[in-house]
């Protein structure tokens, strides 16, 4: 089950990349409307206003499509083969799913008109209760249905993947052979998805009540809730399950619900972008959303972990420093600029529980401090790019300077704590081993180059082509299904630039490559196919 959840977590990253890119575009155009930065003339120019309006329309549409994007991403990510057919089937499944629910609602006289706030108030319902009832429904792709958000998309995606994996190779009798294989998948979807809709029609109101209750609990817990989120999110890094926690916070009511420009928005990242796109942004609503976003990550991603890299370099053996300098510098810069931290974290979390717990605690503390200081820096990257676009360039209302001040303190603390623990307990961080397999800088450069040797070396370390069942990757790791993980040679993997690996069980393993993971996945797939 853990393996399945990890794979699900990876599939949830697809829509996130689109939303983060849309958010970056929204952040850039919002700068053009800041008269303190560009002046009144430019910020009020008609051409600028039209451009900003167009961007907001595009980004708003992308956020409205989130549920179906999740359905497609989950279906294709969980499908074992012929992923494009799974994506096609997911679109069909999503539409039929909500059409069926909409039809059931209509049979019970629940429509857009009978659930509007004005209608409910006229029927004697209180204003607050009317909003609660109305917010439980929405119009999705022109269909009136439950407001299920990304949960509906995930559910449809999982069902589609299950049907696809079960029937995409199904062979029918000769008379019906035209409908065999991949053509059979959409047919089964059309037949089965209404039953899933019927179940959801009765179950969802209770599930929604529980989700909203959990979101309310987290909201009422204030800064303590953000500390627990930051602490737990870092603890989950080795398992890969942090992606699931992140997406629940970013796109569901667990991360909060707010009304922005008359529209109900759920999820911390969704709320943040909605407020950023609003002509009259509510700063209190924005700060309630950003307490779960990148403002809590900047102190340890931009400042703390790069300082930890420097501490690992300073505590490495003199003869090993030339060999690890490039690796630690690249890992530190990656965290500093983009917020991708796993190449650094995997250098110590498995060999020093003390540093692992310290890092998780400091992450939670960072979220806590940014919350009580009322900082308002959002998005989901975590590196200098987000700090600049959504903090510095937005103006002083974000209080980005507090992020930097705390970050500089974090850099000092991380450096001295890492240096002390490494020397005190002789932690075998990079450069503190005499392992003959430790890569030299020349080997690392060669391994990172585009060529057949890269994939061939990885494949050799994995036990050869006959041992590889499935190849996939997330933002920084190869996610592999093997016939036997016990024969994997970690020493050979190190020569390809791997920062570490996680053996989940006898069949599943993850190998950390950081920013060059896409290259590693392509090279490995090419080698296996050859």
Automatic annotation (TrEMBL):
Keywords attached to this entry: Cell membrane, Kinase, Membrane, Phosphotransferase system, Sugar transport, Transferase, Transmembrane, Transmembrane helix, Transport
Under the heading InterPro entries, the entry gives: Glu_permease_IIB (IPR036878), PTrfase_EIIB_Cys (IPR018113), PTS_EIIC (IPR003352), PTS_EIIC_1 (IPR013013), PTS_Glucose_EIICBA (IPR050429), PTS_IIB_1 (IPR001996)
What positions does UniProt annotate as the active site of this protein? 474 (phosphocysteine intermediate)
Name the principal localization, coarsely classed: membrane
Its membrane topology, per UniProt?
Multi-pass membrane protein
GO CC terms, sorted: plasma membrane
Q: Where exactly are the transmembrane stretches of this chain? A: 12-33, 53-73, 85-105, 144-163, 184-204, 210-232, 347-369, 376-394, 400-418
Please tell me whether the keyword Kinase is annotated for this protein: yes
Spell out the molecular function terms from Gene Ontology: kinase activity; protein-N(PI)-phosphohistidine-sugar phosphotransferase activity; protein-phosphocysteine-sugar phosphotransferase activity
Protein name per its UniProtKB record: PTS maltose transporter subunit IICB
The organism is: Neobacillus notoginsengisoli
């Amino acid at each position: 089950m853990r393996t399945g959840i990890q794979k699900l977590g990876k599939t949830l990253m697809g829509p996130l990349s689109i939303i983060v890119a849309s958010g970056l575009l929204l952040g850039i155009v919002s700068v053009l409307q800041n008269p303190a930065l560009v002046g009144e003339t430019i910020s009020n120019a008609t051409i600028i206003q039209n451009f900003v309006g167009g961007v907001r329309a595009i980004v708003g549409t992308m956020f409205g499509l989130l549920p179906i994007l999740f359905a497609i991403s989950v279906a294709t990510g969980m499908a074992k083969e012929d992923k494009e057919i799974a994506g096609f089937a997911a679109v069909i499944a999503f539409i039929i799913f909500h059409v069926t629910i909409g039809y059931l609602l209509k049979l019970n006289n629940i429509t857009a008109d009978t659930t509007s706030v004005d209608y409910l108030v006229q029927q004697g319902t209180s204003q607050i209760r009317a909003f609660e009832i109305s917010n439980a429904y929405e119009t999705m792709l022109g269909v009136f249905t439950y407001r299920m958000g990304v949960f509906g998309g995930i559910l449809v995606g999982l069902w589609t993947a299950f049907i696809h994996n079960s029937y995409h190779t199904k062979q029918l009798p000769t008379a019906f052979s035209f409908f065999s294989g991949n053509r059979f998948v959409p047919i089964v979807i059309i037949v089965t998805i209404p039953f899933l809709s019927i179940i959801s029609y009765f179950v969802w109101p209770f599930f929604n009540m529980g989700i909203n209750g959990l979101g309310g609990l987290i909201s009422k817990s204030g800064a303590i809730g953000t500390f627990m989120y930051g602490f737990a999110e870092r603890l989950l890094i080795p398992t890969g399950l942090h992606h699931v926690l992140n997406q629940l916070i970013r796109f569901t009511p667990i991360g909060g619900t707010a009304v922005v420009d008359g529209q109900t928005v759920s999820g911390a990242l969704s709320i943040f972008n909605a407020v950023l796109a609003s002509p009259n942004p509510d700063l209190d609503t924005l700060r309630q959303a950003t307490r779960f976003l990148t403002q809590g990550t900047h102190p340890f991603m931009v400042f703390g972990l790069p300082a930890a890299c420097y501490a690992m370099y300073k505590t490495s053996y003199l003869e090993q420093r030339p060999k690890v300098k490039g690796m630690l510098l690249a890992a530190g810069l990656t965290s500093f600029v983009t917020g991708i931290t796993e190449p650094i974290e995997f250098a110590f979390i498995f060999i020093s529980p003390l540093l692992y717990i310290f890092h998780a605690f400091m992450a939670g503390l960072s979220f806590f401090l940014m919350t009580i200081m009322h900082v308002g820096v959002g998005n989901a990257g975590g590196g200098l790019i987000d700090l600049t676009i959504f903090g510095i360039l937005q103006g002083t209302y974000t209080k980005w300077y507090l992020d930097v001040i705390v970050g500089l303190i974090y850099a000092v603390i991380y450096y001295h704590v890492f240096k002390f623990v490494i020397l005190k307990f002789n932690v075998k961080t990079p450069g503190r081993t005499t392992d003959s397999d430790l890569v030299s800088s020349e080997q690392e450069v060669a391994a990172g180059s585009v060529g057949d040797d890269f994939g061939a070396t990885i494949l050799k370390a994995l036990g050869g082509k006959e041992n590889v069942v499935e190849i996939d990757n997330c933002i920084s790791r190869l996610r592999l299904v093997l016939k036997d993980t016990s024969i994997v040679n970690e020493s050979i993997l190190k020569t390809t630039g791997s920062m570490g690996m996680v053996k989940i069980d006898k069949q599943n393993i993850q190998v950390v490559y950081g920013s060059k993971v896409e290259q590693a996945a392509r090279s490995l797939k090419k080698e296996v196919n050859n």
